[in-house]
Amino acid sequence: MPSPTLTDTPDDKTLMTRHRRERIVEQVQREGSVRVGDLAVRFDVSEVTIRSDLVILEREGRLLRDRGGAITKGNHHFVTSLLGVDQRASLHLDKKRRIGAAAAQRVFPGDAIILDAGTTAVEIARLLVNTTPLTVVTNALNVALELGAAPGQRLILLGGTFNRESASTVGALTEQCLAELSVQKLFLGTQAMDVDGLSDSTMEIAQAKRAMIRSARQVILVTDSSKWGTSSLTKVCPLAEIDTIITDSDLPSEARSQIEALGIELVLV
């Protein structure tokens, strides 16, 4: 009688699948994010198998699928609306001031810049009142108020429809004005950002930001680290369109690696 051969039984395969999925969850929790290709190599299975694992694990509420992989469930938040400018002004104020100071150091006499709407942009503006000559383009009323009385500066306030939440102008007129301009630097804010890029809950604000990006030779993102790992309804731009990110030192280590892998200059303050 021939000797029995060892083969995988259905129970064996089920156990292997459960074990692999547990290991995937552990890795996501430990590292914050995983990529499909890396998991396929690690577990010596196809990418189709890994994607199936991630679907099941997301259904069980143990992680969130992300483009090309997965992230921890607690690391990602979907932003549905923008807080009013008065509410946002006091959030992370110390970090915003440090970010504003680092950004202001990159502005020199003779520059032409765009300052996006946002409470961090106001911190930059407050430090530029004595930088002359300087041309500042903005759609933000609070930024304009900070710089309106600065001697030796040219302030271009973009027209458009007033958006109360952002205290800025948006719409077709804003975008038309920007299309006529070319500046050295844009200091851009964001409502949400992750490895896929920047996003906003309002289409009009997102369109204004895209028009600013098209008008600038260098795009500098100024935002506190609380925005990382969040996304919203309307895409603004891929992360790769940003030249420099100035943020605070609480930015997670996996985020730092992902940003630097794209060749983006990262400044932590």
Description:
- The chain contains ten helices and 17 strands.
- The longest helix is centred in the N-terminal third of the chain and has 22 residues.
- α5 crosses α6 and α8 runs parallel beside α9.
- The N terminus is likely disordered.
- Strands 7-6-5-10-13-16-17 form a seven-stranded parallel sheet, with helices on both faces.
- β2 and β3 form a beta hairpin.
- The protein has two domains: 66 residues, Winged helix-like DNA-binding domain superfamily/Winged helix DNA-binding domain (Arc Repressor Mutant, subunit A, Orthogonal Bundle), CATH 1.10.10; 184 residues, Rossmann fold (3-Layer(aba) Sandwich).
- With 269 residues, the protein is of the alpha/beta class.
- 39% of the residues lie in helices and 25% in strands.
Give a concise summary.
The protein is of the alpha/beta class.
CATH third-level topology of the largest domain: Rossmann fold
Percent of sequence in beta strands: 15-25%
Shape: elongated
How is the biggest beta sheet arranged? 7 strands, parallel
Features:
269 residues; alpha/beta; Arc Repressor Mutant, subunit A; Rossmann fold; 2 domains; seven-stranded parallel sheet; three-stranded antiparallel sheet; 10 helices; 17 strands; 25% strand; elongated; disordered N terminus
